[in-house]
Design brief:
CATH class of the largest domain: Mainly Alpha
Strand content: 5-15%
CATH architecture of the largest domain: Orthogonal Bundle
Number of helices: 14
Number of domains: 2
Number of strands: 5
Largest sheet: 5 strands, parallel
Helix content: 55-70%
Length: 344
């Protein structure tokens, strides 16, 4: 506990120099204390100080401490904030606590009072951290269990149709690569990665005769195959952490001209991520052997997709994605040549 407390950063925000120095003297034996005289200074200093506890004066010339408290809570920060004032009132106390203050102390204060409230705040903060860690670990375990189960389902689909074996994994990996190249942040990349991995999960609800038919589908059979996007959407809907994946899974077969499925969306109504996935999905389908065609070369696949711009595929997005896929393909070829030279 001693090691934890000495590494804890406390920020004191008060326009009264005497109060700032008093709190610093009281707290400095156990904590790393920094002080500022106003909110503006505090906001700047927080980029480097990274406080784990804040003592905040309510009334200051430039800004109101209560406003800063609300600002901190609206940012969902869990930093314990202890309000201090020389003019206590029931209204201020209630307002402070309702807006997420950890405690409320009145000037002049005693050293023991300050140390006690700091210790309680630190203990509370540690408890919250431990609970958050527990929740995160449970969430990760639940997600891992889900993806293990999902992987088994996808293997079951692959087992029915050897031509599509590994399709979901390849599309997922390439989708993540494309998203990163497009400048997406890590959470956005993960959403597209998961969506791509799960985009064909609905095929578990399509009959084997349709999935494995060694020729083109009849209109009736194609109607059954088209249901996989909506079935996949329904399978994933109850899973809260996949909420952002749902529109991508549902709409990855929509066409730019509105002739896709399941909802006939067109143009900008199609989710951006679904447009990306539709291109990568088509690219992988074209560059692997299928019942109804032998695999095309990388160049030919890109030509076919380019011909589908303005009809099946969204302009601009398609050009950007194909440029990235082309770079990815070139890197793959270079890697293959390097490995071949090592073998030789």
């Amino acid at each position: 506990m001693e090691q934890i407390t000495k590494s804890t950063n406390i920020l004191v925000i008060d326009d009264d120099l005497g109060v700032r120095e008093s709190l610093k003297i009281i707290l400095r034996d156990k904590y790393c204390v920094s002080t500022t005289s106003n909110i503006d200074e505090a906001i700047v200093s927080m980029d480097t100080v990274k406080p784990e506890m804040i003592f905040l004066d309510i009334k200051m010339p430039k800004a109101n401490g209560l406003d800063f408290l609300k600002q901190m809570r609206s940012a969902n920060t869990t930093i314990p904030i202890i309000m201090i004032t020389a003019h206590p009132s029931i209204e201020n106390t209630i307002t402070s606590l309702r807006n997420g203050a950890f405690d409320f102390i009145v000037k002049p204060f005693q050293p023991t009072e300050i140390l006690n409230v700091a210790e309680k705040a630190l203990h509370h903060s540690n408890e919250l951290w431990e609970k958050d860690m527990l929740v995160n670990n449970l969430r990760k375990a639940a997600q891992q269990n889900f993806f293990s189960t999902t992987e088994a389902l996808l293997h079951a689909i692959d087992a029915k149709d050897s031509y599509t074996a590994g399709h979901s994994k390849r599309v997922s990996e390439l989708s993540a690569f494309v998203a990163k190249e497009l400048g997406k942040n890590e959470p956005e990349i993960e959403v597209l990665r998961y969506s791509a991995y799960l985009h064909d999960i609905g095929k578990i609800g399509v009959g084997d005769l349709v999935l494995t038919k060694p020729s083109y589908l009849t209109p009736e059979e194609f109607h059954l195959m088209k249901r996989h996007a909506e079935i996949g959407y329904k399978i994933l809907t109850p899973i809260k952490f996949l909420e952002k994946c749902l529109p991508i899974v549902r709409h990855h077969h929509e066409w730019y001209n509105g002739k896709g499925y399941p909802d006939g969306l067109e143009g900008s109504d199609i989710p951006f991520e679904a447009s990306i996935l539709s291109i990568i999905d088509a690219y992988d389908a074209l560059t692997t052997d299928r019942h109804y065609h032998k695999k095309y070369s990388h160049q030919k696949a890109c030509e076919i997709i380019t011909q589908g711009i303005h009809t099946q595929f969204t302009p601009t997005v398609t050009e950007k994605v194909l440029a990235i896929i082309n770079r990815h393909h070139e890197a793959y070829l270079q890697q293959g040549r390097a490995e071949e030279s090592l073998i030789l």
